[in-house]
Amino acid sequence: MRFTKAIVRPPGPSVVNGLTSADLGPPDYEKALTQHSAYVRALRECGLDVTVLEPDDRHPDSTFVEDTALVTPPVAIMMRPGAPSRRGETEGIERVLNCLRAHVERVEPPGTADAGDIMMVEGHFYIGLSGRTNQEGASQIIRILRAYGLTSCTIPLKDVLHLKSGVSYMERNNLVAAGEFIGRSEFAQYRVIRVDDDERYAANCLWVNGTVLVASGYPKTKRAIEAHGYKTISLDVSEFRKLDGGLSCLSLRFS
Question: Taking the model in full, what pTM does it have?
C-alpha cells in the first residue's frame, strides 16, 4: 500500500527520563531533536504529508507515537500501552485520529498492547505477544480487525521488546529479519533479508512508498536491502536507540 500521511511528535526535554533496557546512557536532548527533524524531512521526501504535534513533556516516551495506535483504512485502534507510564500518551493521538477516521476503537483493560508489536502485511496483521502486549490485548485487536474484514494472528516473542524490533515488512513479499525471526515458520512464505547478529538493531527499518529508511552505521544491512532493488535513506537515530526505540516507532503512517 502507499502511505500518504504521517503523525509525529518531537521529543520534549523529559526524553532523558524515558524507559529503557539499553545500557547506552541517557539520550542527548538537543541531538535527539536534530535527529527527529531529519527523520521528518525523510518522511516528506518520501511523499508523506506529516502532521507534527507539540512535544508532550509529561510523557518522556511520547515521541514514540507508533505505539499508541494502529491505523488501518477502515478503522483506527487505540492501544493501551503495556508500560503504565505511557498510557496517558494515547489521549492526544486519539483526538487527532477522531478527525481522520470515522471508526476509532480501543483496547480495554485488562488488555495491554503497543502497536510496535503489530506488523501489517497487506490486509493481514501479525501481533507479537510481548512484555508490552498481552494475550487479552491481542485478542481484542483480533476481534476488532475481524469485524472490519481484516485478518491477524499472534506470534510469541522471546528476546525483543517489540515484534518490529526484529522484523520489518518491505512490501513485494520481502521481510527484513534478525535473531529469533529468522527461520520462523510464520514467515516461511516470504523472502527474508537476513540481518547479521552484529547489526540486529538495523532490522527495525521502515518502508515508505518504495524507499527504505535504515539506521545509519549498519552497512551490511543497508547493502542487503539495496541488493533487493530498494532505494535507501540512512538516518542517525542513536539517541532513540538509547531508549529502545527505532525508525518505525517515531511515526504513525497511513493513507
Answer: 0.97
Q: Which of 46, 59, 205, 249 is catalytic?
A: 249
d(CA 2, CA 11): 27
Distance of CA 32 to the CA centre of its chain: 17
β-pairing, 191-195 with 174-178? parallel
pLDDT in tens, 143-200: 999 999 999 999 999 999 999 999 999 999 999 999 999 999 999 999 999 999 999 9
Asked if residue 154 lies in contact with residue 134, where contact means CB atoms within 8 angstroms, the answer is: no
The residue assigned the cell 534478525 is 178
Of the listed 36, 46, 162, 205, which one is catalytic?
A: 162
At a CB cut-off of 8 Å and minimum separation 6, what does 69 contact? 76, 77, 78, 79, 90, 93, 94, 97, 115, 252
Question: Is 162 tagged catalytic?
Answer: yes
For this structure, is 249 an active site residue? yes
Q: Which three cell numbers mark 16?
A: 532523558
60 is written with which cell numbers? Answer: 518522556
Q: Which residue, among 254, 247, 162, has the nearest Cα to 205 in the 3D structure?
A: 247
Residue with grid cell 493513507, as numbered in its chain: 255
246, 215 Cβ separation under 8 angstroms: yes
Contact 13, 235 (CB under 8 A): no
Q: Is residue 195 within a helix (H) or strand (E), and if so which, with residue range?
A: strand 191-195
CATH of 5-254, one of 3.10.350.10, 3.40.50.720, 3.40.50.261, 3.75.10.10: 3.75.10.10
